[in-house]
Specification:
The complex is a heterodimer of chains A (about 400) and B (about 270).
Chain A lengths: L4 H44 L4 E10 L14 H6 L2 H4 L2 H7 L7 E7 L2 H7 L8 H12 L3 E5 L1 H5 L12 H32 L4 H13 L4 H15 L7 H25 L3 H9 L4 H29 L3 H5 L20 H9 L5 H31 L4
Antiparallel strand pairs in A: 1-2, 1-3
Helix pairs in contact in A: 1-16, 8-11, 8-13, 8-15, 10-11, 11-13, 12-13, 13-16, 15-16
Chain B lengths: L24 E12 L2 E12 L3 E5 L6 H7 L10 E9 L2 E2 L7 H7 E4 L10 H11 L6 H14 L3 H4 L12 H13 L5 E5 L7 H14 L4 E5 L3 H7 L2 E6 L2 E7 H6 L4 H7 L5
Parallel strand pairs in B: 3-8, 3-9, 6-7, 7-8
Antiparallel strand pairs in B: 1-2, 1-4, 4-5, 9-10
Classes of the chains: A mainly alpha (about 400), B alpha/beta (about 270).
Amino acid sequence: MSQSFDDISAQLRRRHRQSSRLKWISMGALGLAGLFLVLFFADMLNKGLPAFQQTYVEVELTYNEDATRMGRAAMEPEDAKIVSRSFERLIPGMLRDDPDLLGTTETRWVLANGEVDQYLKGNRNKLSEAERQAVDEKVESGQVALKFNTTFFTEGDSKMSERAGIMAAAVGTVMTMLVTLAIAFPIGVMTAVYLEEFAPDNRLTQIIEININNLAAIPSILFGLLGLAIFINFFGVPRSSPLVGGMTLALMTLPVIIIATRTALRSVPDSIRHAAFGVGCSRWQVVRDHVLPLAMPGIMTGSIIGLAQAMGETAPLIIVGMVAFIPDVGASFTQAATVLPAQVFTWAGEPEQAFVEKTAGGILVLLAILIFLNATAVVLRKKFERRW
Amino acid sequence: MSRHESSRPEPGQPVTRNTDAHHELSIRVRDLSLWYGQSQALKNINIDVYQKNITALIGPSGCGKSTFLRCLNRMNDLIPSVRIEGLVEMDGRDVNAAKMDEVALRRRVGMVFQKPNPFPKSIYDNVVYAPRMHDLVSRKPEQDELVEKALRDAGLWEEVKDKLHQPGTSLSGGQQQRLCIARAIAVQPDVILMDEPTSALDPISTATIEDLMDKLKQQFTIITVTHNMQQAARVADYTAFFHLGEIIEYNDTRTMFANPATKKAEDYITGRYG
């Protein structure tokens, strides 16, 4: 018995309804995910952008004899109330370095203290009513103003919010990542090359493979414990240093690079290997001259993404002591240092209102770097994509 | 119908000798058997391949002709589960012997594959890569000369001489296959193995390659696998018919196609199965 079009249409209506319902549900899920992302970015920008501006005061400085001992003496008492104490502490040093300044006066813009800064930005602050009026007057006369916060990008951490910057953490991140890359990239790529191109397919290599995949799923803090036990306690690598941090993160990045490299190697068609073997290449020549160059874009993409992941990592670095108060920009791989996410973590724990914006500002900088790295990975992939 | 089975000569030699071809031995195969794991793909293969001839290997799919071809330059080494017994002898040496270096073997036995597979490098680099690797040439003028000669011999020079530095993959399928032939002959091998070299090509490119094979046999011994019986009839001096891992009949091509000695070969050649 055959069915008429009407019978079939009646059944189809129910199926079409089902598929349109599913379509709406999945679109709703996508919309929700997008909304969370927008909310997150809006919140971060809202909280973090003020960190890129800082209040500065124009003050008259009289470099007298007292100022060589106590910087405060160089200023009018009412100015001293609103200028950052971090600047006062610099004055004796300035006079020591340049004795000619003694006895002169100058007018210059200096950092205001954190409370004045928060008042200008409309946040909660501890200024008294009288102080607020005094600041208001100076704002009117143009002696107090918000300016671009260069300090944030040139200084290390400080207990005084107005002087706290991310430079030390940024340099720490760069040094840590260099160590991570120098260790994880060659070891990871060569491991993958061995497993993919040389190793026989037997029980042992299968066990190794399974464990490498498992390693990628291990909670990162365990790598921190390993770093503490092996690198610091056994090998005596200096704690809190970019060296130990980079080594620890390299352990974490290794499986990511190995897996990405193997995938990239596997995507090189066998016809290329056969062609190379056919003209009499040894196994290593096949890999070096033909397979690796073709797999390189994939390897780079995977490594950059692995590195970006390591760059955002905080937990293992807590264990090896890299989450610390680091006021000075590091100069060597063995000095104590901190990294960007750790700096954010430190600031998030500060009680002062002013550190809220520093925290969000630090996150923005970290996000910008991560987006840049991921974009580089995408561009590399697009640029070197090859079709067979 | 008269059969030649009574006059079957020594194992491995063609049933009738082609009297107007060269008869110097290139590769001698005796009792060659090959297993993929448990399953036997080649059974007691005996064949003498003669120098500066084209020998075609024909037979239905899965009959072992490509597997056999890959035994001759040890490409089967790349497959871990393969086990080989028997003798493949070239220049008086057993190519499967432990002290035979497969790189040295492949230097003398080149290969052209089913699908054109030029390296994703320039045309020039495709040709010069292997000679440079084997230290046959070093100075730039020598390299240029070698590239031109190989491309001329492969009948590709006129078409590519103005774009030597464009990628080899930018050529058409037939040109790519001739580039692969140029790459194979650039190291001056003794033998060239061709694994269905025209099966991925259009009829015109196929005809070009067949003409080329005819020219190349003056310099090289060519062993080609083909699915196309007309092709075997057109280009080959000798033809071996494979069936289920065995050589059923090996003969000079004219005799094979005009007057096959075995029923199986006759049925295959006349198109009863394939």
